[in-house]
Specification:
about 180 residues; mainly alpha; Four Helix Bundle (Hemerythrin (Met), subunit A); two-stranded antiparallel ribbon; 4 strands; Metal_cation-efflux_comp
Amino acid sequence: MQIFIFTISFVILQRISELIIAKRNEKQMRKLGAYEAGASHYPFMILLHAGFFISLIVEVIVFERSISPFFGYLLFLFLLVQSLRVWCLSSLGMFWNTKIIVLPGAKTVKTGPYAFFKHPNYLVVCCEIILLPMMFQAYFTAIVFTVLNLIMLSIRIPIENKALIEATNGEYTYNKKIQHPS
């Protein structure tokens, strides 16, 4: 149980720090003329992620789930995913956000994991939503929130792609990220 409490506390603190970073980045971007796209789905995304943590905690504690026999492998994968998360955030810098914040006229470039595929941060979230519950045999949470997250992403990604294409005059294409205009 201590491993679960340590792990879940670490991830929740990580998410809180990311929300602080996102808010700071949003303020910087708005000063440059950025705007938010797709705001109507954002509260549902917050509910999804909060619900994920609540479900995981309840499933592990109430139903007394134990550590997976594959915990070491799953932890290794989880730590690799966390490395990708840090790479995503550092690659986007002030452009990283939990909201869809776009800067009109921004140019697109290939850097970091964005040089390899379009939405690596969403891949990170998908992996976490599977790996974290599997580490503690919380199969209900893994299945339900994987499905809910895929539904959310099926709404969010098209909105984000459309906003980025419009904001970058059609320059936003596969394998690219926004960079501050020169």
